[in-house]
Amino acid sequence: MGAIQYDQRNSKVRIDEVSLMTLNKGRIKLRTRIGNYQKLRFRRVKGQCDLYYDKRTKTFYLIVVVDAAEQSQYDHVEVLGVDMGIENIATDSDNQIFESSKVEQLIRK
Questions:
Q1: How far is it, in rounded angstroms, from Cα 6 to Cα 12?
Q2: Residue 18, number of CB atoms within 10 A of its CB
Q3: Cα separations (Å) of 89 from 52, 83, 93, 102, 109?
Q4: Residue 6, beta-bridge partner list
Q5: Tens of pLDDT along 56-74?
Q6: Judging by beta carbons within 10 Å of its beta carbon (0-12, 13-18, 19+), is residue 11 exposed, middle or buried?
Q7: CA–CA dist 41, 34 (Å, integer)
Q8: Which of 59, 66, 52, 68 is nearest to 20 (CA)?
Q9: What would the pLDDT profile of 62-105 be if each residue is shown by its tens digit?
Q10: What is the DSSP string of 20-60?
Q11: pTM to 2 decimals?
Q12: CA end-to-end span of the chain, whole Å?
């Protein structure tokens, strides 16, 4: 399994067609099939894509890079981090320590 990397210089991706530069045939234009989920996000397509061939299914896939939002639309009100440990079962970011002795007693029972 391998992939060929393309960028905006040697490829052009549209919602119904892709144009790719090849070594033997020059530029070729291919029809595409895009799912409804991907069609909704097509405006965020960047210039880079990878052409991937799956030998098992004998199918080509075009993997297209999209611009994803960096920030979540939801503001985190309260976040708690938990460190799972060996000495203590867990310690959270509010410095509350959960000892493993109670868990060990239950395991012994």
A1: 9
A2: 19
A3: 45, 8, 14, 10, 18
A4: 49
A5: 999 888 888 877 666 666 6
A6: buried
A7: 11
A8: 52
A9: 888 877 666 666 666 777 788 887 778 888 888 888 888 877 88
A10: EE-SSSSEEEEE----HHHHHTGGGEEEEEEEEEETTTTEE
A11: 0.49
A12: 52
d(CA 93, CA 83): 8
92's CB contacts (< 8 A; 6+ apart) are: 80, 81, 82, 83, 98
Read off the tokens for 18: 């892709």
| Distance in angstroms (rounded) separating the CA atoms of residues 95 and 66 | 40
State which H helix or E strand residue 13 sits in: strand 11-13
- Between CA 16 and CA 29 the distance in angstroms is 10
Contact 78, 92 (CB under 8 A): no
